[in-house]
Amino acid sequence: MRRDMDLCRKLLFYFEERDAFAVDKSPRIDGYDENAVQYHLQLLAQAGLIIYEADRSTSNPERLIRVYPFGLSWAGHEFLDTAKNDTSWNKAKERILAISGGLSLSILQALLVHYAKQGLGLVE
């Protein structure tokens, strides 16, 4: 399965908008099936962007089987704060994809931070 950064962003928005900091075993995102959502929750967990509990493999405790998310981590809030502006988000994605053909989280966040700094007049 391919990583879908738009789905990752939608999941971060989903958890930011929730009122409760409680486990959500089956978040639903329009246009995505449960398997895709669960896979991307695991990616967000591995990236440190969400707070979660996990079912892990008994034969390999490093392997996540299922993620039970509670909400955003500090890093998740930080990333989402740079990714909220649709114009910057789309501009960053297009620029990175044109050069590399894939979306690296660290490069995406760096470019989003750069665009935010430009908007504040901190860089050219």
Notable features of this structure?
124 residues, alpha+beta, globular
Structure notes:
The protein has 5 helices and 2 strands; from the N terminus they run H-H-E-E-H-H-H. The protein is an alpha+beta fold. It folds into 2 domains: 5-73, no CATH class; 85-119. Strands 1-2 form a two-stranded antiparallel sheet. Strand 1 (50-56) and strand 2 form a beta hairpin. Helix 1 packs across helix 3 (74-83). The longest helix has 15 residues, at 86-100.
> Structural class given helices, strands, pairing?
alpha+beta
- Strand fraction equals 5-15%
Number of strands: 2
Unreliable sequence segments: none
Spatial separation of the terminal alpha carbons: 38 Å
Strand order of the largest sheet: 1-2
Shape: globular
Radius of gyration: 15 Å
Largest sheet: 2 strands, antiparallel
Oligomer: single chain
Count of separate structural domains:
2
Mean pLDDT: 94
Helix content: 40-55%
Pattern of helices and strands: HHEEHHH
Number of helical segments with 4 or more residues = 5
